[in-house]
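Researcher: Let's try something more involved. This one mixes different molecule types, so please make sure each is placed in the same coordinate frame as the others.
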Amino acid sequence: MGSLGPYQRKHKITVVGSGNWGCAIAKIVAENAASNSDIFEKKVEMWVFEETVEIPKDSPNYDPANPGPEKLTHVINRVHENVKYLPGIKLPANLHANPSLEDAVKDSTILVFNLPHQFIVKTCESIKGKILPYARGISCIKGVDVNEHGINLFSETIGKTLGIYCGALSGANIANEVAKEKWSETTVAYDPPHLDSKAPSLQPSPSGSQVDLVQFEHKDVSGNLSNVKLQALPSEYPPIDHNVLKQVFHRPYFHVRVVSDVAGVSISGALKNVVALAAGFVEGMGWGDNAKAAVMRVGLMEMVRFGDKFFGATIDQRTFTDESAGVADLITSSSGGRNFRCAKLSVERNQPIEQIEKDELNGQSLQGTLTAAEVNSFLKNQGQEEDFPLFTAVYRILQGTMQVAEIPSYIER
Amino acid sequence: MGSLGPYQRKHKITVVGSGNWGCAIAKIVAENAASNSDIFEKKVEMWVFEETVEIPKDSPNYDPANPGPEKLTHVINRVHENVKYLPGIKLPANLHANPSLEDAVKDSTILVFNLPHQFIVKTCESIKGKILPYARGISCIKGVDVNEHGINLFSETIGKTLGIYCGALSGANIANEVAKEKWSETTVAYDPPHLDSKAPSLQPSPSGSQVDLVQFEHKDVSGNLSNVKLQALPSEYPPIDHNVLKQVFHRPYFHVRVVSDVAGVSISGALKNVVALAAGFVEGMGWGDNAKAAVMRVGLMEMVRFGDKFFGATIDQRTFTDESAGVADLITSSSGGRNFRCAKLSVERNQPIEQIEKDELNGQSLQGTLTAAEVNSFLKNQGQEEDFPLFTAVYRILQGTMQVAEIPSYIER
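Model: All components are placed in one shared frame. Result:
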């Protein structure tokens, strides 16, 4: 046990989700919990949606005497490998796979959400009221939920459903490469209301001790006001600040910068896929590296403009231009990402992108085409299509109402 | 002849230099002079260092009856092609190749400099006092002149030598692709002192008419004060402003943004080559697209920091993060540029980069290795090596005193 310093309690961390990105992040968090034992409980919980698996015969963990099938949590806890979703990667022994969501989250002050976005609401509703009321969350779920009326951040959906504050993590990261400890960077965004600077009303906490309960008006990114009650973290814990979050996620092979702009980090993760489609179209035309860099730059500036117009002062343009979640993720996605590759092939083969998607992605679907449509519907509703000519061009090309060759003249100004 | 509008005189443009980039820019300028005949003289002069050439036999302009040799200016003016430096590209008929530098520049209000940097001083000194005293310049020469004591911009060297104001043009541009009208973008930077806002002293001009002569204190990018006398443009000409410069350079296939930050545009063009070396090293290691994007992002931020530390308020961070001369040129250079390719090969073949340079570049030399050494010498002199860990790492790797594998830990913070 490390020294507790001035604090009597340590943070317990739970990762909610155990796909390949979930396990890659859980591996990092568990490594850091073990090496920062002064502030974190060593044991890290990971909620695993239970299923029965067979260890593949070519796995070093395959045992002919016990060929299975076996429960996935048992396999993870026994051989420290998620043989189904992140095969070949050794997980830390202090990472505990837990099939019970409720049990996995119940004592944790730091909840890391890393599951497919369609499961967020259901998952959060099932643990509402069953977590520590002063827990804090970080969403590793990429992108945002755009519809014609506005934009919802997944971190806000989580926060509102659970009544806690939730930040976000996003960057130029491919799960398998991070799991293999290939060096990359990421951005963590975290900006909770300053509970300590407000006059708190003392209320009995669920556990009986006195904690601060702060009720404040919260304006979400779409400008909607809501009353949010947030409980201050008891003073026995080290405060959850940028420094502590860096200790949760930063590794020698996974460099973390912590910023305050949750909306910017989240929106970048969605919009960069639209830009990657444009880069793929241009690459497919064979226009060369300068044209590709030009379309990426124009796209980056439309991301900045989008943030500025629809989120105003709540967003920092430097999140797009300076951070891993912004420019670096844009570069990676426009170099070899799935949206880029399919857009390129659709030009080269002169086929609709849906056909490429069918032929190349084994039943998976592109995020960028969906986002392009959602963003266009939102922009149309705001009467702003013309102010985002690249986003609009991408949408129209996908619809077949514009040619890729028209991009330069359409975005010319 | 177009309408002169409220102005009695039109701008005459001269391009000084006729290599492949010189001719590509001259082609653009001449196209624009022809199509904006209300403000520009149609005929554009291009100074050509005279030499005797033979038209290659496979050229459509080869005439067996007149096989040459012939003077290069004659060939250009006769067949409108620079058969030696930009073969296969039709130059506009209103572009006049002139072997006399003095004659080419003598009546021009807009001078576009596009020649190898080692010829700048000599060329400018030979026309000192022989140009219109109120002419304005644009330097298309990439990079800056760094030594251990400071940084000189080529545009400032030109401006000081000739006693005129000179801006800069830089972007993600490869001469041959621009010449082929493949779409790209560029950045023009122009920010002359506001002559009209100062109280001018009326002085007789060399041509006898009254013009404004403004003497003001000029602080160059290294902080040195000098007295510069600039002559205001006579009011018979349309003012040379961002709008007019856009009309000089913008084409449907060459999109121009005009900014005010000459230092930022120039420094980007030099420092991005150091970052491209780092990207090449990482690519050579096979670390994947995320690592490459990370090193590019870190490099971009060191460019911003470099501008901020050594140029302060005279530089705008957005030049690096938003403009073609910044982020886009960085992306292009780190995708397939020469510095990137040689750095990648040096890791893959485990050979010093000088060896790769010798084997791969046909006697040409890398800009990035030179800049890395110059920048390091400057940083060392300022005691700032540790604040620019990526630039320092690149230099040390080139020197053989650091391994590429050490980059992530060396830049970790």
